[in-house]
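Q: Could you fold this chain for me?
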Amino acid sequence: MLDRNIPFYNTILRCDSYTPAEVTLPDGFSIVPYREGFEKGWARLECAIGDFDSEPEAEDYFVSTYLPDREKRKNCLFLLDPEDRVIGSCIAWQDMRGDTPVSSLHWLVVDEAYQRRGLGKALCLAVMDLFAKQNGIPVYIHTQPWSWKAILLYISVGFRLQRTD
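A: Sure. Below is the predicted structure, expressed as structure tokens.
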């Protein structure tokens, strides 16, 4: 569980170059693009870490933010366990900064029961591979200090802390 007692500070990271890496998963695990119904798994995961107050609120957010554009749905990646249950997710997205699209890694999350197995890094690398294929580098991440374990993962992939937004 995230330690939300750590004070909030708007934390921005940027990756200016990325060399695609091999994504390896334990036997039976897979990373796949969005399929109908995965929003429920995403909502469950995000509620479990306290990012939303309720699963219906989280599901509504996912549906309204990520599902309207059918083409962009393929950038919503999901980690499945051997029984095809959603146990993680990460999204390769384009946020708008004025009139300019900015590549942004969104919502990396892995079920607490499956953490410390390299699955979060595998998800992050899979999303970075999407950005690289779509000429979407540099990539930004907005996060906060209580996600310090994720920040260390992002740095290992090539992200660097930014002094300004």
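A (continued): The beta strands are 11-15, 30-33, 76-80, 86-97, 100-110, 139-143, 160-161.
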